[in-house]
Design a protein that fits this description.
alpha/beta; 12 helices; 3-stranded antiparallel sheet; 402 residues; Protocatechuate 4,5-dioxygenase, Chain B
Length: 402
């Protein structure tokens, strides 16, 4: 099946160390390969050579040197076959499966929740009780007589870890009017473009959240873009999905629609998105379409530190303090509605704090810029993902003045 001249090329995949074990987890962040793979750390030198330039003989030699023993070719072939079977290699098999799965997803009218049963209960009543417990435990913010904020910043971290911040943000939207339209700016963790839209409705255990197709068709007409071109990125991304749960819980039987948008492509390699035609066109069109019944939420996390995120050091309490201080500088620019200052601070030094919400936050600030709003920081928090790695996040809101 694989001749010795075959040169395997590993796709961009997540490589996650397993603490306390000589193993790591390999998974596909884009969801083409749905099965994760646990491998021994000793194959890492081989993965590093799977760049499309080294053939199986090169891998056999590298394995023999790294392992200090003679490694037969069939050992390397079994590894390559295993990786290809899980769709981790950029191969003809992967390209065929990629086309098939994208076409299948494109035909579906509803985007179902991959996180249900994993990050939160899959049964309706259990999920309602879980969310009720979050609000009961964490209280939330109460502003008597104050209208709901026009825009929110909320986390997209696991609900059990970020419950306090989710509640701090969404308790301010308890009075959201029936018939509201909510533009959800999610973090496209693996999106290499500025935007990915979808016309699909979102199904969760709490029911069906209807996507505002009329709004998206108007946006498509105004921009001349094919807004379905990157729908696949929504299939496994959780940053929009988690916001919908809270909207469904708070709105109950009241009607509302959503506009799901994943944001990406803003990084130290692309630090000036406002110069790109697609970005400018979409922002201007969105600003024209956002009316008085439209609200916006950005589902973002902030700093990511520790070995899980590629740092050479384990994250400790001092690193949590560093992260919160760094985030504080970002919040200053955010609350002042200064998108360029925010971007400069976030990307300074190549984004060493690995703030994953840079793109949706910049889009949010670009949409809100020039409006008369008062920004409030509601909460900052940190959660440890394992004993050596942490993520920081927060909650904030922007209220109309007058």
């Amino acid at each position: 099946m694989y001749p010795v001249s075959y040169k395997p090329k590993l796709r961009p995949v997540d490589l996650i160390p397993m603490p306390g074990e000589e193993k790591f987890l390999l998974r596909d962040p884009l969801g083409y390969g749905e099965r994760a793979l646990v491998l021994s750390r000793r194959v890492l030198p081989l993965l590093a050579l799977m760049d499309g330039e080294h053939d199986l003989r090169d891998l056999q030699v590298a394995a023999s040197r790294a392992w200090g023993e003679l490694v037969f070719a069939d050992v390397v072939v079994r590894l390559v076959k295993q990786l290809d079977g899980c769709l981790f290699l950029d191969s003809p098999h992967f390209q065929q499966e990629k086309r098939r799965r994208e076409e299948e997803f494109a035909r579906q009218r509803v985007r179902r929740s991959p996180m249900a049963g994993r990050s939160y209960p899959a049964l309706r009543e259990e999920l309602k009780a879980f969310l009720e417990g979050l609000f009961a435990s964490h209280g939330g913010n109460v502003f008597p007589g104050v209208k709901p904020p026009r825009a929110l910043i909320a986390p997209h971290i696991d609900l059990r870890l970020g419950g306090r911040a989710f509640v701090a943000a969404y308790s301010t939207w308890r009075g959201l009017p029936s018939g509201s339209r909510v533009v959800i700016l999610g973090t496209g963790h693996h999106l290499d473009h500025f935007f990915a839209f979808t016309f699909k409705d979102f199904e969760t255990p709490l029911g069906l959240a209807r996507t505002d197709g009329e709004f998206l068709r108007a946006l498509e007409k105004a921009t001349g873009l094919d807004l379905k071109a990157r729908e696949w990125f929504h299939r496994s991304e959780h940053s929009v999905e988690l916001q919908i749960l809270f909207l469904q819980y708070l709105m109950g039987e009241a009607s509302f629609t959503i506009v799901p948008v994943l944001c990406g492509g803003v990084s130290s390699q692309q630090p000036r998105p406002w110069e790109e035609e697609e970005f400018k066109t979409v922002i201007l069109a969105l600003k024209d379409l956002v009316d008085e019944r439209t609200y916006v939420v950005a589902g973002v996390d902030f700093s990511h530190l520790g070995t899980r995120y590629g740092d050479s050091f384990p994250a400790r309490s001092r690193d949590a303090d560093r992260a919160l201080a760094h985030d504080g500088r970002l919040w200053e620019a955010i609350l002042a509605l200064e998108p360029w200052l925010f971007l400069e601070r976030a990307l300074e030094g190549g984004n060493p704090y690995k703030v994953c919400g840079v793109a949706p936050l910049f889009v949010l600030l670009s949409l809100l810029e020039g409006r008369k709003l008062e920004g409030r920081l509601l909460l900052q928090d940190v959660a440890y993902m394992d004993q050596d790695s942490l993520v920081s996040f927060g909650a904030g809101g922007f209220w109309d003045l007058g």
